[in-house]
Amino acid sequence: MSTYKILTAASVMALFGAAASAEMPMNVYGDIGFAIGRDHVLSTDDDGEKYGVSSRSLQGYVGTDYSGWRGTLDFAIMGRDDGGETYFDSFAPNKAAALGLHAGREIGEKAYVGIFAGKNWFQGDDAGTYNSYVNGTLYGLEAEAELLPGAAIYGQYGYADMVGDENDTAFKGHFGKVGMSMQRDRLLMRLEGEWGRSPNIFEDEDDWGEYTKIALGGEYELRPNLFATAQISHMEITANSEDDGEDNSIQLGLKMSFGKPGQVNNLRTPYTPGLAAAWAEVLD
User: Fold this and answer.
1) Which residues partner with 112 through β-bridges?
2) What is the pLDDT of residues 159-214, one digit of tens each?
3) Which helix (H) or strand (E) segment is 198 a member of?
4) Element spanning 280, H or E
5) pTM exceeds 0.85
6) How does pLDDT run across 64-88, given as a tens digit for each residue?
7) For a FRET experiment, which of 30, 33, 39, 238 has its CA 20 to 30 Å from that of 13?
């Protein structure tokens, strides 16, 4: 079984185990959600034509807090239908995943500061073996503050070491994310912007690469602990001013939560640094 499938199975089992433990006298909470949609990708290293493909994602987290301290474990997996290794080599990465741990301190009732560390799984090493996944590490700082009742701003800043093919394709550099969420009655809206830059290696050693991403998402509570979700995102990848990629997605899904009613977790581990490293392989 591939690392990708092991990660999927382990993450789902851990989250459902945590959901079961929520019946115990512990402050445990979290969610798990699945979405399907349509992605449109473009690579100037190919013919610059956009291609549409079906996609899906799975993500969730489990968290606990005690006496002002908070800890969470989260995961995210994205995948899209493809035509095999030719698709990855010519058009776009097929899959990416993240698994991370977060720990920090709540400041009063309106703010939080913490640290995070985790891994990304992504396609790398050689486009000709597209099922050969590699992984890299990422870590950083994060914070969140409530501005008004139901309205919060949040951000993450970290470093990622994602090596696809040693001395060739990789993303090794800093990344950041800023966002705002707004909750009113049953509706939650979230707007995020993310960026990253690998200054000394991307398509090749001594080259640079960078990515930017913006995402707009929403959740609507259909009934207690069950939510309809939607998200639209646009990601641009630049490789040393030579080649560019676009990674656009529209997804609809369902999410189930457990534990604290109305709990919102904006600080999740991104898989975008690993996805950027896979894009470096595509654009090379």
Assistant:
1) 106, 144
2) 999 998 877 889 999 999 999 999 998 999 999 999 999 999 998 888 999 999 99
3) strand 187-198
4) helix 272-283
5) yes
6) 998 899 999 999 999 988 655 556 6
7) 39
Do 56 and 33 touch, CB atoms closer than 8 A? no
**SS3 label, residue 116:** strand
Nearest alpha-carbon partner for 247 in 283, 217, 205: 283
Domains of the chain: 3-283 (2.40.160.40)
What is the residue whose two structure tokens read 């604290």? 260
Alpha carbon 257 to chain centroid, angstroms: 19
Beta strand residue intervals within 44-169, DSSP E = 51-66, 69-80, 95-107, 111-123, 133-148, 151-163
- For residue 94, CA distances in Å to 57, 90, 260 come to 12, 11, 35
Instruction: Classify 134 as helix, strand or coil.
Output: strand
Find out whether 251 and 55 touch, Cβ atoms under 8 Å: yes
- Which residues, in sequence order, are CB contacts of 47 under 8 Å at separation 6+? none
